[in-house]
Specification:
With 555 residues, this protein is an alpha/beta fold. It is built from 19 helices and 20 strands. The protein folds into 3 domains: 183 residues, Metalloproteases ("zincins"), catalytic domain (Collagenase (Catalytic Domain)), CATH 3.40.390; 143 residues, 3-Layer(aba) Sandwich (Rossmann fold), CATH 3.40.50; 101 residues, Hypothetical Protein, Haloacid Dehalogenase-like Hydrolase, Chain: A, domain 2 (2-Layer Sandwich), CATH 3.30.1240.10. Strand 12 and strand 13 form a beta hairpin. Helix 4 packs across helix 5, helix 5 packs across helix 6 and helix 9 packs parallel to helix 19.
């Protein structure tokens, strides 16, 4: 705690804390004992014997246990174990009870000096002395017995230490935001932060577990939202932070999340504390709240084979049956979306999409025509395609137009369900055929990233926008048109608030949509840029990521 500028609570040098025997018995698996509560000596603020973390051990009793006298062995032997007569036999040996050593748990509760002098916070801090000890002892008792697949096992064999040190700091949002910025590179406040001090390589008699930092401001807000007291919420956050110090990390995988969630609920339930674990509470706070799900197609709802899996289809159907409206937001044309969803029985008037359903298609590029003679003169995009033999497809409502035959153009129809491209032999004829809303260059992923994107980002700067949904395609759309602008138009038309919307995507062109929604979800296969703005990272599109998100946050 040397790095945290805080004042420690002035706790008694020696106090007496009581713990009911029936509670202690339940923690260690021993049968309840019908006896009055007995005192546990606590020193150095909140130091207690870890009597529950050692299976098959008896409880520590602070008064001596006296053995009854040994009865006479024969008529010539008295109660003291000696024979009468001139021969004296050796005293009967008495086995000494083994003296068990219990690690001391040194818990330090601190209040950040910038917090106002609030008696309620002081009372909570006093209660947390025993709460942290009980939660830690219970968590320690399971480390060597329970089988975890994802926990970092650096902290183990707690019994070998003489002392286990852990601290809890209560602070405000500004203080925890500064810690997040300095230690994690994230400039925002969080409800709880864990800072480990354990170095496995050092063989020390003291286990310096680390620090748990809790923002009382955020905790108070969450307590009000979840309908319990501030102490209840701080206990939930403390348990979450403690498990992080013990090597649990819910962010690394689905399995890790499940294991940590189970441990949170076990500790809270066993100790009789109110509320759910932080992981469960976070998910539940988003459930039953969304009336709209805005979902991308390529790389999100469609897997790597451009198919909708059975589980994703089932999740969408269940969401619809629960009154949630699914809105497709994509750079694809409407006919392409209808074709893809028909294969999963999701098209039609009662499905996700139809010829007249709500949706954002072609990046809502139909607002402004992209290519016209007045603006582009020689229509450099189409001429570039002819000169360099790089296929480009012009989208015009429900039609796709191109200048020459190419396998990549055929693939656009066969794999991505877009309308079969019509070959128009000249630029002038193509422009005269219809108004164009979007241009799509097709090339290898390397060709797009190294040549086409840099070139067109500079060539049309200030005139149009370059976006990329998949690695081997580059889209050019009118300035000011995007999925985000399309969603805003749609929400305004419906009179729906952003708070009712959850958005799911994976590509660069989904960033604005995810920012706009109340809950923005990026799938694991998404780009780093989209993950950086997302509220939640889901499974990949090949792992039924859409279904997983819907079941967790909506159903």
């Amino acid at each position: 705690m040397a790095t945290l500028a805080a004042r420690a609570l002035l706790l008694g040098a020696r106090s007496s804390l009581s713990l009911p025997l029936r509670v202690a018995s339940s923690l260690s698996g021993w049968p309840p004992v019908a006896t009055a509560d007995f005192p546990l000596p606590v020193c150095r603020g909140a130091v207690a014997p870890l009597f529950v973390n050692c299976p098959k051990r008896r409880f520590f009793v602070p008064f001596p246990f006296l053995r009854s006298p040994i009865p006479p062995r024969s008529t010539r032997e008295n109660a003291r174990g000696y024979r009468k007569g001139k021969w004296r036999r050796r005293p009967v040996s008495r086995k000494k009870l083994p003296k068990e050593r219990f690690p001391e748990l040194d818990v330090r509760i601190c209040i950040e000096e910038e917090l106002p002098n609030d008696p309620a916070i002081t009372i909570i801090a006093e209660k947390l002395r025993m709460d942290v000890s009980m939660a830690a002892a219970l968590a320690f008792s399971r480390l060597d017995n329970a089988k975890y697949e994802t926990r970092d096992a650096s902290v183990k064999d707690v019994d070998k230490y003489e002392t286990v040190e852990i601290s809890l700091l209560i602070c405000n949002d500004d203080f925890i935001q500064k810690l997040n910025k300095d230690w994690r590179g994230e400039d925002h406040a969080t409800d709880v932060l864990s800072m480990s001090q354990h170095i496995p390589e050092l063989d020390l008699p003291v286990l310096m577990l680390g620090d748990i930092v809790v923002s009382v401001e955020t905790a108070a807000q969450q307590a009000e939202e979840r309908g319990h007291t501030l102490l209840d919420e701080i206990r939930i956050l403390m348990v979450h932070g403690l498990l992080h110090l013990l090597g649990f990390d819910h962010e690394i995988s689905k399995k890790a999340e499940e294991e940590m969630e189970t441990e949170e609920e076990m500790i809270l339930t066993t100790l009789g504390w109110k509320g759910k674990g932080l992981i469960k509470s976070t998910y539940d706070s988003h459930k039953q709240k969304f009336s709209y799900i805005f979902c991308d197609m390529d790389g999100t709802l469609l897997n790597s084979s451009s198919k909708i899996t059975m589980r994703n289809a089932q999740a969408l159907k269940e969401a619809i049956s629960n009154g949630v409206r699914i809105v497709i937001v994509t750079g694809k044309s409407r006919p392409a979306v209808v074709s893809a969803l028909e294969m999963a029985s999701l098209a039609g008037n009662r499905g996700v999409v139809s010829e007249s359903s709500l949706g954002v298609f072609l990046q809502v590029a139909c607002i402004v025509p992209l290519v016209n003679r007045d603006k582009y003169g020689n229509n450099q995009a189409l001429l570039y395609s002819l000169k360099h033999t790089v296929p480009v497809v012009a989208f015009s409502q429900d039609r796709c137009l191109t200048l020459f035959q190419h396998p990549l153009v055929d693939r656009l129809h066969e794999t991505y369900y877009e309308p079969k491209a019509e070959i128009i032999p000249s630029v002038d004829q193509l422009l005269a055929a219809s108004e164009i809303q979007k241009l799509l260059f097709l090339d290898t992923a390397e060709g797009i990233s190294s040549l086409l994107r840099p070139y067109w980002s500079e060539a049309i700067k200030g005139q149009a926008t370059v976006v990329q949904a998949v690695p081997d395609m580059l889209e050019i759309v009118p300035l000011g048109t995007s999925k985000g602008s399309g969603i805003r138009l749609l929400l305004d038309h419906l009179g729906v608030s952003e708070n009712e919307v959850m958005a799911i995507g994976d590509g660069e062109n989904d960033i604005e949509m995810l920012k706009l929604a109340s809950l923005g979800v990026a799938l694991a296969n998404g780009s780093d840029k989209v993950k950086a703005v997302a509220d939640v990272i889901g499974l990949s599109n090949d792992e039924d990521g859409v279904a997983e998100v819907i079941y967790k946050h909506v159903l």
